[in-house]
């Protein structure tokens, strides 16, 4: 046992975190896509606090290298809209089943990917940024997958800007979720030592993602972002349908 968790479980979670952090270091999102299903399957008691803490920490590795590429103007609209989106998500959680909400969000993301994959560029302006932020807050609160709406909107931007802007979004979003859980009195602080123990996995994944940036063709970045968004939606959809 390691900090009250089976050693084999910790090892598998560590591998999932390295893979997820590598993908996120390359395309800007991916940590929860890979690790959330693994953690949920192996030890649901670790969710969501463990991944929220790690999701808040990982973006700092990206920001240490690419903070000058953040689209602060766009983030202002996204984060402002994410607040009511988070509140709406909390209200929906009390009204609809988790499965119904997850399926709805997954289908919406898949439709967005299909609509944009054929080079349809959605204009990045206050209205679309606010819509993406609202959906991100809603999806992040109800399903823990809040990155795709904003990633799809930024898919035609330079890779550095995609990664840096999403990094800020993930840090702030995870912090908001943790504060919400704490205020509601449901924060499980027992997972914090395990999160600290697993933090080196983020270092390894961030390093690998950074190395892969040099060999991954920049003109393929958009398709990689869309692929990760579609994969996250499919994982969410399958997990929800199968229960």
Estimate what percentage of residues fall within beta strands. under 5%
> Which ranges are low-confidence, i.e. pLDDT below 50, for 5 or more consecutive residues?
none
User: Roughly how much helix do the residues carry, as a percent range?
Assistant: over 70%
Distance between the termini: 28 Å
Number of helices: 11
Number of domains: 1
Structural class category: mainly alpha
Q: What is the mean pLDDT?
A: 86
Shape: globular
* Largest sheet entry: none
Strand runs, count:
0
The ordered string of helix (H) and strand (E) elements is HHHHHHHHHHH
What is the chains' assembly state? single chain
Q: How large is the radius of gyration?
A: 17 Å
Question: Would you kindly provide a written description of the structure presented here, covering whatever features stand out?
Answer:
It is a single chain. With 243 residues, the protein is mostly helical. It has one domain. The chain has helices at residues 7-27, 31-42, 49-57, 59-66, 72-95, 98-116, 126-143, 148-153, 159-183, 192-213, 221-242. The two termini are 28 Å apart. The model has no long low-confidence stretch (mean pLDDT 86).
Q: Topology, pairings included?
A:
Layout lengths: L6 H21 L3 H12 L6 H9 L1 H8 L5 H24 L2 H19 L9 H18 L4 H6 L5 H25 L8 H22 L7 H22 L1
Helix pairs in contact: 1-2, 1-10, 2-11, 3-9, 3-10, 4-9, 5-7, 5-9, 6-11
Name the features.
0% strand, mainly alpha, 243 residues, single chain, 11 helices
């Amino acid at each position: 046992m390691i900090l009250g968790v089976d050693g084999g479980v910790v090892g598998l979670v560590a591998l999932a975190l390295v893979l997820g952090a590598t993908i996120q270091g390359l395309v800007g999102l991916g940590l929860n896509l890979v690790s959330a299903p693994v953690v949920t399957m192996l030890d649901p008691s670790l969710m969501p606090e463990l991944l929220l803490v790690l999701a808040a920490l990982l973006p700092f590795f990206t920001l240490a290298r690419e903070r000058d590429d953040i689209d602060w103007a766009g983030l202002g609209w996204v984060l402002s809209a994410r607040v009511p989106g988070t509140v709406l998500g909390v209200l929906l959680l009390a009204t609809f089943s988790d499965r119904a909400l997850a399926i709805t969000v997954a289908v919406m993301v898949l439709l967005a990917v299909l609509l944009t994959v054929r080079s349809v560029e959605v204009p990045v302006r206050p209205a679309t940024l606010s819509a993406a932020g609202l959906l991100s807050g809603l999806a992040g609160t109800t399903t823990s997958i809040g990155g795709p709406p904003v990633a799809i909107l930024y898919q035609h931007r330079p890779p550095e800007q995609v990664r840096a802007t999403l990094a800020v979004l993930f840090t702030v979003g995870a912090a908001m979720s943790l504060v919400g859980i704490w205020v509601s009195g449901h924060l499980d602080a027992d997972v914090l030592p395990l999160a600290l123990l697993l933090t080196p996995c983020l270092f390894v994944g961030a390093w690998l993602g950074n190395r892969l940036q040099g060999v991954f063709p920049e003109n393929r970045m958009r398709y990689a972002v869309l692929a990760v968004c579609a994969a996250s939606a499919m994982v969410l959809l399958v997990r929800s349908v199968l229960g």
